[in-house]
Design brief:
By secondary structure, the protein is α+β, with helices and mostly antiparallel strands. Helices cover 40% and strands 19% of the residues. It has three domains: 34-239, Heat Shock Protein 90 (2-Layer Sandwich), CATH 3.30.565; 257-324, Orthogonal Bundle (Helicase, Ruva Protein, domain 3); 341-482, Ribosomal Protein S5, domain 2 (2-Layer Sandwich), CATH 3.30.230.10. The strands form three sheets. An eight-stranded mixed β-sheet has the order 5-4-3-6-2-1-7-8. Helix 6 runs antiparallel to helix 11, helix 7 packs across helix 10 (313-324) and helix 8 (277-284) crosses helix 9. The protein is globular. The model has no long low-confidence stretch (mean pLDDT 85).
Length: 536
């Protein structure tokens, strides 16, 4: 009886170990490419219509960033071809080609940039750019590979005296590594630039969330760009630049102490090349002088000559707390490149037919140590429908955001603004009504998107506050225009009434004063002059 019991216990233990070993066999590292293969909706590829837009967007963003880094006015072409001999509206497979006049990509970097997720130069850079995560264009290629089995094709040239490099690439999703299917030198008439071609399953639909709308909005926020677009319907549209002036170059800055979390601070302490704590605070952060560094160390109770790598967890926590109670100058803002008031107005005028335009660029502000600027543009009247709610167009670092309008900070800031104060109708909890287009752009070294698909801006209080201040400033200017227009319309109405009865007044005066016919006409002319004089 006892023996049986021992055997049972032993068997149970054996089964437990066996089960654990079986579970262990199924456990392995997941590559980032493999993860996004199953979760491609996180990157903006959750339906065929959106997939087409996301593919174009990621490629165009890369092209614009590359041209600006080279300091050359961007000339970007987008061509979409419907396959299978079908009309664009019913086709389910397309070839997307984006070509630019940027600096090109060096040979050894092409496979990694276009066929490896989370590879790029912008993630660690503390300056404004359209791309941030190193996912976009490689994810578009991966989506094309998953839906059609076709490789992404790249032609890139870096020097007029050299041939271009041509690649066909796949992503090994299990390893997140590029597979080179074809590599060769080719002749290309351009002096420098990059051309990317991706074949993918998609759907082409016109409207507010279409490729057409994305490119139109891109032209508004990037008035220095020339865009050429050949749609799946074979219609060619040109968006010419309205300025020959390049945006100022964004300068890379070091992180600001206020934006660093405890875990990041501890990591920086271990990896710094600085020999002591005071030097670490001065060299590895922006806006920290030797005096401020010593003040932080004194408040934390840590010797400023201590080796950073030997700082214990509790001392790091004390440093973190001391940083947040020390007055430190706001981070520099030369890392930002806002569009600017004049160019916003030019961009709006180029693409929107309105009677009135106003733009506002707010002074720089900070969230979590990251500098940012908010810009607002308003277009009112003209061809904009007057009996609909106002239309909102959103940008982040000049990139249009077409999805999730109601879930982001922009929508919340607009709803939180009392537009009735600015002579507009507005129902409770709704956008204002009238012939109005509201444009909002955030320029930042790190835009806090709500997801990897970069469709909406997170609800940071500092960001919403700046948006509301910009909207209110623009709203006041709009209100002046609306009141002037209403006054002019009222005066015109009164004038029309008076002019209607002037001939009758002339006849009456003729009869009263026994005037001749010619004198009656003079009376009417004089009455009109008096009317105009009083209107002035």
């Amino acid at each position: 009886m006892v023996q049986t019991k021992l055997t049972t216990v032993s068997d149970k233990k054996k089964r437990t170990i066996t089960k654990a070993e079986e579970l262990a066999k199924g456990q392995r590292e997941i590559s980032v490419a493999e993860f996004f293969t199953k979760n491609r909706h996180l990157l903006g590829f959750d339906n065929p219509r959106k997939a087409l837009l996301t593919t174009v967007k990621e490629a165009v963003d890369n092209s614009l960033d590359a041209c600006e880094e080279m300091n050359v006015l961007p000339d970007v072409s987008v061509k979409i071809i419907a396959l299978g001999g079908k009309e664009a509206s019913v086709a389910d497979r397309f070839v997307v080609t984006i070509e630019d006049n940027g600096p090109g990509v060096v040979k050894k970097q092409i496979p990694n940039i276009f066929a490896k997720l989370l590879y790029g130069s912008k993630f660690h850079s503390m300056k404004q750019s359209r791309g941030q995560q190193g996912i976009g264009i490689s994810a578009a290629g991966m989506y094309g590979q998953l839906t059609t089995g076709k490789p992404v094709k790249i032609t890139s040239k870096i020097d007029p005296k050299r041939n271009a490099m041509y690649y066909e690439l796949h992503i090994d999703t299990q390893k997140n590594e590029p597979e080179i299917l074809k590599e060769e030198e080719v002749e290309w008439e351009k002096d420098h630039g990059t051309k990317v071609t991706i074949e993918l399953e998609a759907k082409y639909v016109k409207g507010k969330q279409s490729v057409d709308e994305y490119l139109k909005q891109t032209a508004i926020a990037n008035p220095h760009v020339t865009l050429t677009y050949i749609s799946p319907e074979k219609k060619k549209t040109n968006f010419p630049r309205v300025t020959e002036e390049m945006p100022a170059e964004a300068k890379s800055i070091k992180p600001h102490p206020y934006g660093v979390e405890l875990g990041i601070l501890m990591k920086m302490l271990k990896s710094t090349k600085a020999k002591n704590l005071q030097a670490f605070l001065k060299k590895d952060f922006s806006r920290v002088s030797p005096k401020i560094a010593k003040e932080i160390c004194d408040k934390a109770g840590v010797y400023e000559k201590s080796r950073p790598s030997r700082i214990a967890t509790q001392e790091a926590d004390n440093l973190f707390k001391a940083i947040n109670i020390t007055k430190i100058m706001a981070p520099p803002t030369n890392c930002l490149v806002p569009i600017g008031k004049d160019l916003i107005e030019k961009g709006l005028k180029k693409e929107i037919d309105a009677d009135f335009y106003i733009a506002v660029t707010r002074p720089p502000a900070v969230y979590r140590g990251n500098p940012f600027q908010i810009e607002v543009g308003l277009a009112y009247g003209g061809d904009i429908p007057s009996d609909h709610i106002s239309r909102v167009i959103r940008f982040a670092n000049r990139v249009p955001l077409l999805y999730q309008q109601s879930s982001g900070a922009v929508f919340k800031a607009i709803l939180g603004t009392n537009w009735r104060n600015y002579s507009l109708s507005q129902s409770k909890g709704a956008l204002p009504t009238g012939p109005l287009i509201i444009m909002v752009n955030i320029a930042s070294v790190w835009v806090p998107f709500t997801s990897e698909s970069k469709e909406a801006i997170a609800h940071y209080p500092q960001i919403i506050k700046e948006m509301k201040l910009a909207l209110q400033e623009a709203g006041r200017q709009l209100s002046i225009h609306i009141r002037k227009r209403k006054h002019a319309e009222h005066e015109e109405k009164k004038k029309s009434y008076i002019e209607k009865y002037l001939p009758h007044v002339g006849i009456a005066l003729k009869e009263i004063l026994n005037l001749k016919q010619t004198e009656e006409q003079k009376v009417e002319v004089n009455l009109k002059k008096i009317l105009e004089k009083h209107r002035e």
